[in-house]
Amino acid sequence: MSSTLSPRGPTVLVPVLPLRDVCLFPEASLATIAATIPALKAVEIGQRTGGQVLAVAQKEPDLAAWRELHPMGTVADVGEDIALPDASHRVELDGLRRARVLTIVTSDVMVAEVQLLDEGDPGEYWGAAVEALARYMHAHAELRSFLEQQRRSAEPMSWVNLACQHLPITASARQKLLESDAGDRCMRIARGLDALLRKEQGG
């Protein structure tokens, strides 16, 4: 399976909020610190133009590389926005829908034309992913409690997306999961969780 097979939706213009070492999934939430001028302006413009931004991970965590972004991110609602004493802002994001960057205009803020992507049908892979997640959470009660508090949606894929959002995996692995459609993501997370659990248990 490949995300390129997912049905494509309309194109929209959104300000770009670069993320460091993390990415945001649909139906998941993320608290992030907006500290750079591009990030702060993206939040400001997003709130003035419908309350949405494109949350997309930087290819490198270096602050100087904020223009080097992955080609896919998540359109998100901007929730709580708290100004901090150092002039940065703590921003809550609620992921809505994956989006592929088509074009991007860069100045002191980035604005992107993006194509919204449907998740696709997880099909038979969803059950395996949820079973693997249940096994992993059984061994990590604190994770179960945390995910239950974080869940914002009753959609079946929300558990899988929350797992992708919060499991202890590398940033590059997380980005690959985001770029996969629902079926592929479920398959990958099922295999990955079972492998991670075996490793933790010394298997």
Explain the layout of strands and helices:
Layout: E1 8-19, E2 29-34, H1 37-48, E3 52-57, E4 72-83, E5 89-106, E6 110-117, H2 125-139, H3 141-150, H4 157-166, H5 171-178, H6 182-200
Helix pairs in contact: 2-4, 2-6, 4-6
What's the short version?
Helices cover 36% and strands 31% of the residues. By secondary structure, the chain is an alpha+beta fold.
Describe the protein in words:
It is a single chain. The chain is built from six helices and six strands; from the N terminus they run ββαββββααααα. The model is unreliable at 1-6 (pLDDT under 50). It folds into two domains: 3-117, Archaeosine Trna-guanine Transglycosylase, Chain: A, domain 4 (Roll), CATH 2.30.130.40; 125-200. A five-stranded mixed beta barrel has the order 1-3-4-5-6. It is globular and about 50 Å long. It is α+β, with helices and mostly antiparallel strands and 203 residues long.
